[in-house]
Design brief:
heterodimer; A: 270 residues; mainly alpha; MetI-like fold; 2 domains; flat; B: 250 residues; alpha/beta; six-stranded mixed sheet; four-stranded antiparallel sheet; 9 helices
């Protein structure tokens, strides 16, 4: 009986201790949030320029006055954006194959040099933002869709090659052994033993990446790499807010189209 | 006439350096159905794989029709592997490929890289594949994916693939271990009959002693990488079996 009582008291104490800790954590979060608001919003904003509530509504309203006259000029940039995503994805896939080959532990030609090199390329590709890649290529090859395609390709390599390499590492080694046993060369071993096993994963990844690349190519124009982004940038520069909204709607419909297409193609292959 | 000669063959694990095979010697002659029996871990699979160098032997010699295999270059090795058909315990088919493509893949050592890229196998190969699929009783399943077949059917695809190579020697690595007893006998029978018809000697790993006694004319008993018995099936006495399996627990 006394045993039970002491046990209960012990439980009670630990519960109260936990409650105190929770309260302390909550206070800490509150102080951090309030401090941040004070420093980066209240002190950092130029309140005189924000204006009254009416003025804010007026600014927002300017975006609502849609400029439909822009529509005939959107066809070409939309197509350009779409093709930029397609070509960028294809080029990215092309670069991904050797990177995945290097970076998959079970097939890499050299575990000590090419494997870490392949892994490094995967990380490099993903750790540089697509806009930064675009800036680099605009500087290198000039304005237009080409730097956009290159930027999207470089940004896609990381994801496609990483997923592909992981799929290669997870294959069943038995068919590979069989193809080696019939006298197949290295290419035949990969083509007959490995490729059929990773095909659906890789196809699914490519479609997913293509879907994302439509979003990426829609903003490429902001740094001069062609497509709808460039139209967006021009409208903004002309303070034609109604036009900006129309461009945003165009981007939205393009992305929606990509979403629908990728949904059905993924369904068809899986 | 001896077709395959193995002399003082040794193999060891790369990591620990322990010997798996401690000097194995035997001859496979024309018309032989040679069984390798022994407890698990005796080195049966390693021995079979040392013949076509899926595992590299560390010492000793393997010669096929008088040609030494252990010193071949990668290119020569691939050429020689074409003549050695292999049938696996778990069939080792490419599951996502059709039965036909799996059988045709037995010809990969003969067709060039470009042809194999587009799966352009010569018409004679396709003809041969159809004959073999008919022979193993799968002519109605050629377009199915390999993973839609039952275990016994899959092993028949494996047999057809091996025969597609026009092999001069068949290596079987526990061909029946993934099959039930009835199908096991059917598969062994199919292999024995076909090998006899085509005049191909067989070297077969098998843990089922009853099957080995029934189908094989010679038996090699292996225990911890050592040969405990080598002789005609009729000469294998119960005392020999006891020696081969004496270390096995359970």
């Amino acid at each position: 009986m006394t045993h039970l009582v002491s046990l209960q008291a012990e439980l009670e104490r630990s519960r109260r201790r936990r409650q105190w800790v929770q309260l302390l954590m909550l206070a800490l979060v509150l102080v951090t949030v309030l401090g941040s608001i004070q420093v980066i919003i209240i002190e950092d904003t130029d309140w005189d320029r924000v204006g009254t509530f009416g003025q804010i509504m007026e600014s927002v309203g300017r975006f609502m006055a849609l400029d439909w006259s822009l529509i005939p000029h959107l066809g070409i940039p939309m197509l350009e954006t779409f093709l930029m995503a397609c070509l960028g994805t294809l080029l990215g896939l092309f670069f991904s194959l050797p990177v995945a080959w290097f970076g998959a532990l079970n097939v890499t030609p050299s575990k000590r040099i090419l494997y870490p090199f392949g892994r490094f390329l995967m990380t490099l590709s993903r750790s540089i933002h697509e806009m930064v890649w675009a800036l680099i290529f605009v500087a290198a090859v000039g304005l237009g869709a080409l730097p956009g395609i290159l930027a999207i390709a470089m940004r896609s390599v990381g994801f496609i090659s990483k997923i592909t390499a992981e799929a290669i590492e997870n294959i069943d080694p038995k068919p590979v052994e069989a193809i080696r046993a019939v006298g197949g060369n290295n290419f035949q071993v990969m083509y007959y033993g490995i490729l059929p096993q990773i095909k659906t994963v890789v196809l699914g990844t490519i479609i997913f990446e293509w879907d994302i690349n439509i979003r990426r190519s829609a903003i490429m124009g902001l740094v001069g790499a062609g497509g709808l982004g460039l139209t967006f940038f021009r409208q903004m520069a002309m303070y034609n807010y109604g036009g900006v909204t129309v461009v945003i709607l165009a981007i939205l419909s393009l992305i929606l189209l990509g979403e629908i297409l990728s949904h059905y193609t993924r369904k068809a292959i899986v | 006439m001896s077709i395959l000669q193995v002399q003082n063959l040794k193999a060891r694990y790369a990591q620990t350096g322990d010997d798996i095979l401690k000097g194995i010697s035997f001859d496979v002659a024309e018309g032989d159905f040679y069984a390798i029996i022994g407890p698990s871990g005796a080195g049966k699979s390693t021995l079979i794989r040392c013949i076509n160098r899926l595992v590299e032997p560390s010492e000793g010699s393997v010669s096929l029709f008088g040609q030494e295999l252990t010193t071949l270059s990668a290119r020569e090795l691939r050429k020689t592997r074409r003549h050695i058909g292999m049938i696996f315990q778990e069939f080792n088919l490419v599951n996502r490929m059709s039965v036909m493509d799996n059988v045709l893949s037995g010809r990969l050592g003969y067709v060039g890289t470009t042809r194999s890229l587009f799966k352009l196998f010569p018409r004679s190969d396709i003809q041969r594949a159809l004959e073999l699929l008919d022979r193993v009783g799968l002519i109605d399943h050629i377009d199915k994916r390999a993973d839609q077949l039952s275990g016994g059917q899959r092993q028949r695809v494996g047999i057809a693939r091996a025969l597609m190579q026009d092999p001069q020697l068949l290596l079987l690595d526990e061909p029946t271990a993934s099959l039930d007893p009835k199908i096991s006998r059917d598969v062994m029978q199919l292999i024995r009959d076909t090998a006899r018809d085509l005049g191909i000697p067989v070297l077969c790993n098998i843990h089922d002693v009853a099957l080995a006694k029934e189908f094989c004319n010679r038996i090699l008993g292996l225990q911890s990488g050592r040969m405990m018995f080598d002789g005609k099936t009729a000469e294998l006495a119960d005392s020999d079996l006891e020696r081969i399996y004496e270390l096995e627990v359970l």
